[in-house]
Amino acid sequence: MLRSEISRTSAHDDRTDDAQAGELDPADRRAGVTGPHPRTPGAVLQLITPDGARRPDADLDPWVADVDDERLAALYEDMVVVRRLDIEAVALQRQGQLGLWPPLLGQEAAQIGSGRALRRDDFVFSSYRESAVAYTRGVTMTDLMRVWRGTAQAGWDPRSIGMATPSIVIGAQTLHATGYAMGCVMDGVDSAAIAYFGDGATSQGDVNEALVFAASFAAPVIFFCQNNQWAISEPVGLQAMRPLADRAPGFGIPSLRVDGNDVLAVMAATRQALDRARRGAGPTFIEAVTYRRGPHTTSDDPSRYVDPAVQQAWEAKDPILRVERLLERSGHLTEERATAVRSRADALAAEMRRGCTGLDAPPPLSVFDHVYTSPTTWLVRQRSQYAAYLAMFEGGGR
Amino acid sequence: MTVKEFAMPDLGEGLTESELVSWSVAVGDWVELNQVIAEVETAKALVQVPSPFAGVVSRLFVEPGTTVLVGAPIIAVEVADDEAPGQDGSDRPGDGQVSPTRAEPAPERNAVLVGYGAPVESASRPRRRARDSGWVASHRALPAQGRSTAPTPAPPSPPASTADGGAPSRTGVGTTPVRPRSYPPVRKLAHEHGINLATVTGTGPDGVITREDVLAAVAARGDGTTATPPEPAPRTAPREVRTPITGVRKHTAAAMVASAFTAPHATEFLTVDVTPTVELLETLAGQRRFEGHRITLLTLVAKALTIAVRRNPTLNSRWDEAAGEIVQHGYVNLGIAAATPRGLLVPHVKDAQDLDLVTLADAIGHLTQEARAGRTPPADLVGGTISITNIGVFGVDAGTPILNPGEAAILAMGAVRRQPWEHRGEVALRSVLTLSLSFDHRVVDGEQASRFLTDVGAMLAEPGMTLTMV
């Protein structure tokens, strides 16, 4: 196992603590399986260094043994594409085509590495920033836009995609994932649920309740925390005195602290956690240490609270750049291929733009359509009142 | 080449305006799709705005440092015609981009987090329909809707705001509000202080009545109830009822005002022991010739009045201002003030001086009956010469009656009371009555009035005295 300090500029990661935080693993002991190895606090698991060096790790390597250069190139392409889509979405918002967008710039590896580790029959319960995870689940470019353009309450069919409608409520989806995972056990299937949430969400009651239930019922759920260092404008160090991964053992859940900007390490960690889930060994907590390089949302101005030096330091640890360097070194990323990847990304961005601007606003009254399977009298009354209100305007309030 | 305009977008979940801080491009520059063209500062953030078109900048609509309403055009770009429609969606209606042919920006879509957000300022608000087809009308009580075709006067429209571009303001919707706009706690406060919210002018947003407004109304009332709110009045009856001034009341008021402020009134009082008259009434009641006729104290007072008038004719006269004459009547058209459901009426008995007691009694009975039934012919209401008002039936003793216009005297008779009274050098329980006489001092002097009053009093105190006066 490689242990490297992830950042000297993050106060949170500068902490040194000799406690053997990752050791205890009562759930694993009870289940008679082996959990993650003890590690030193603040250390993160890493397979690809920022300058593109592949570092061996005895624990993680087996989980990504099948990821050859070709497959790594595919992950690289994924990351290039989702970054391009993210940039396009920000532009669309600035051009008045989207109401809001939560950019994922800097978090591509955490989302692609974990999303690509999932099976079709696994189920994702995400927060609002996991557009790249949605991409790995096969959500179309247009569907990705619907909610943010305000033309739909949900962008896709959760059952066919294997991903729930993103939760705007912070941390609520961890409970949904835990319940879903408990259901998988009852169904006797080896599918798993994965909950995506941020560092800020770990302070929410919902997340802690979910951890308790998941541990108690050994639910096949992965708590995938993208620690992007910011809860909007609040640095993670203000609400976590110790690494977030250290909390899970207190609930009886083994945890992994992984370099969230290392797509390979993230994939290895997620596969390991998925394996535990499928074997009936219960939940795993993964802290993917990464960095949100953009604003919280397009309504946010991070220049008011972000130190430019910290920003630069994280740009040096760019998740795409390191894979690019690694592939270039191994000769698997030619100029020709790089151009092809960019073209594909541009084409998808254009497709997304077309899909976005082509979305028509739904009739106002459609807001009542899917509240209940059969409308209540109150809902019917509200609908008629709203219809009367809209009738006050020329053109029906549009 | 086609010129496309780009309107200031809502950059932050419901903003209505943003400041254009600086341009990154100039007229004539080639811009790529998504190339940064400007820096814009919103209430939330300083952001870079990328171009939604590729082409040549043909116009910059605003100077740096200008605050721009969301939806107003900021830049025009000449794009190649082969720029695929739908590439940027600008050919679609209602996507927030403005075609140059459109007269005014129409940012119909105001995207916020989800759905449609803060209304755009100024003329781009959705226009309301005429209010008769509106929500308010359709939510009135059903009976009101049924009457909507009746020619009821239209409610006054609120003053139109020209800045509003003709779109009625929010308050315009409720030109006939069901009740004043306020909040439940404020309503409770007003109720506790007995303040009718309809009389309070609201200073809150959109004229909402605030707590301060109610307290100000309480202070302005200044009735000392501020400190200790009175017990809430039983809500069985409305606190006040407004009735249009019409009909009898309007006529009465006009008559009283005309009388009170043209004829200088003076009033005299005389309290009389009318025990003999009361005894006379008992005697008359037992006599066959008066059977079936209602001889009352009023009848006898009326009879005494006609006799006294003969001796004091100035009381039965009229000040004719226009002619500059005093008209003295050779007849008595005796007015009888009657309280009727419609109000006070003073019909009169014509030529009362010629009527014997029975006829007079019948005439008065008929007069009041007709008045209470509302059947008094108009002729009976004009042309009276002197009047009697019987306030005694209401249990009061005396008052200052106001003259029926055009008459010089009015006699008020109070209630007959059993009172300790001097009688033959001793104190005895006697039937006592007070007479109040108001007279027009232009026509009548105190001497004549007093003579008249004492004549009436003498006949009531001793009916036999009548023999000395006829």
UniProtKB/TrEMBL annotation, chain A:
Keyword Oxidoreductase listed: yes
GO molecular function terms noted in the UniProt entry: magnesium ion binding; oxidoreductase activity, acting on the aldehyde or oxo group of donors, disulfide as acceptor
All residue ranges annotated as the Dehydrogenase E1 component domain in the record: 78-347
Name of a matching Pfam family: E1_dh
Residue intervals passing through the bilayer: none
SUPFAM superfamilies for the chain: Thiamin diphosphate-binding fold (THDP-binding) (SSF52518)
Region of interest: Disordered: 1-43
Keyword terms, alphabetized: Oxidoreductase, Pyruvate, Thiamine pyrophosphate
Cofactor(s), by name: thiamine diphosphate
GO-annotated biological processes: branched-chain amino acid catabolic process
Stored PANTHER family: 2-OXOISOVALERATE DEHYDROGENASE SUBUNIT ALPHA, MITOCHONDRIAL
Name of the protein described by the UniProt record: Pyruvate dehydrogenase (Acetyl-transferring) E1 component subunit alpha
Species: Cellulomonas fimi
Gene behind this protein: pdhA
TrEMBL record, chain B:
UniProt EC number: 2.3.1.-
Annotated Gene Ontology cellular component terms: cytoplasm
Record carries keyword rRNA processing: no
SUPFAM superfamilies per the UniProt record, alphabetical: CoA-dependent acyltransferases (SSF52777), Peripheral subunit-binding domain of 2-oxo acid dehydrogenase complex (SSF47005), Single hybrid motif (SSF51230)
Residues annotated as domain Peripheral subunit-binding (PSBD): 181-218
Cofactor(s) needed for function: (R)-lipoate
Gene3D superfamilies the UniProt entry points to: 2.40.50.100, Chloramphenicol acetyltransferase-like domain, E3-binding domain
Domain Lipoyl-binding span(s) in chain numbering: 3-78
Keyword Transferase: yes
Top-level lineage group: Bacteria
Assigned keywords, A-Z: Acyltransferase, Lipoyl, Transferase
Catalytic EC class: transferase
GO molecular function: acetyltransferase activity; lipoic acid binding
CDD domains in the record: lipoyl_domain
UniProt family annotation: Belongs to the 2-oxoacid dehydrogenase family.
Protein name (Swiss-Prot/TrEMBL): Dihydrolipoamide acetyltransferase component of pyruvate dehydrogenase complex
Organism listed in the record: Cellulomonas fimi
